[in-house]
Amino acid sequence: MAAPINETRAGTASKTGAGGRDEFDRITAAWLLDKAVQVLVFIGGISAIIFIIGIFVFITREGFGFAVGKLDWGQFLTSPRWRPTSEYNPTYGILAMIAGTASVTGLAMIVAIPFSLGAAIFIAEFATGKTREALKVLVELLAAIPSVVWGFIGLTIMNPLIIDLFDVPVGLTVLNAGIILGLMAAPIMTSIAEDALKAVPDRYREAAEALGATRGQIVFRVVLPAAKNGLLGAVLLGVGRGFGETMAVLMATGHAINIPDSIFDSVRALTATIAAELGETAVGSEHYQALFTIGIFLFVITFIINLAADLIVRGIRKG
């Protein structure tokens, strides 16, 4: 009986190559295609990181020397005077632009947060069937509107409307830009807030319903507290979206260097300054490098905001 067993083992061994691999386990077209797809997916996954690093390296290369060697950071951050083209005493103060950007973004969040959270709650908790799908498509369409179109709306529609309603000489103000920017930020905030609400386990809702809670009580006393980190992450991402917007803010603010005293003052944003002046400066000049220094400042601020939002969203997923 030993001979047949040995022959079987020998036959099995003959079908086995080096390293214990079966002769049928060899490179084929399907295997190559699978590896190619894996490589493409990997490249796509890291491409965003590579692009971000490349953008940061480019901006830093153009502005770092000026920021470290020539720029007075005390004046840069605390002076409202931005006079880069002065022949005798050029000054590079961005305080007024920081105030303008912050005021527009703050008003935009006041406009966007109620709309976006209300829409997210209705879509996630109350709407059903075709109504939910239609609203989700509408939100996605709003997010796809180009910023220059929003700016055109602010310039041609909101501007005369604000002048007529509030009897002010100019309608290109913080109010105009805040409303436009709030409407721009609302769709992305709505989408993220809806995801946060849908991430709340159904057993929370079922337990509250079993205790006799109404739909409203379930939403406001159970779902919203459970999703608070995700909702805060949505708000922070909306802040980052508003802080980095360019064309709509350029067209709707009036583009005046001014620390605003009210929502009816014209202001200038940091991003709008870069967009308006970069094409008119000599490459390599101090003005050119100062604009890139503003870019570095904006990059750092938006990176911090988005990182905070990402960490908050990760926190709710782990919780």
* Poorly predicted spans: 12-20
Could you please say which CATH topology applies here? MetI-like fold
Assess the beta-strand content as a share of residues: under 5%
Main beta-sheet strand count, sense and barrel state? 2 strands, antiparallel
Strand order of the largest sheet: 1-2
Report the end-to-end length measured between terminal Cα atoms: 63 Å
- What is the correct CATH architecture? Orthogonal Bundle
Helix run count: 13
Question: Mean pLDDT, as a whole number?
Answer: 86
Rg from alpha-carbon coordinates = 28 Å
In CATH, the homologous superfamily goes by the name MetI-like
Task: Describe the model.
This protein is mostly helical and 319 residues long. The chain has a single domain, classed as MetI-like (MetI-like fold, Orthogonal Bundle), CATH 1.10.3720.10. It contains 13 helices and 2 strands, in the order αααββαααααααααα. Strands 1-2 form a two-stranded antiparallel ribbon. A hairpin with a 7-residue loop joins strand 1 and strand 2. It starts with a helix and ends with a helix. 31% of the residues are buried.
Please give the structural blueprint.
Elements: H1 2-14, H2 29-69, H3 73-78, E1 82-83, E2 91-92, H4 95-126, H5 129-143, H6 147-166, H7 174-198, H8 202-210, H9 215-226, H10 228-243, H11 247-252, H12 270-277, H13 286-318
Antiparallel strand pairs: 1-2
Helix pairs in contact: 2-13, 4-7, 4-10, 5-7, 6-7, 7-10, 8-9, 10-13, 12-13
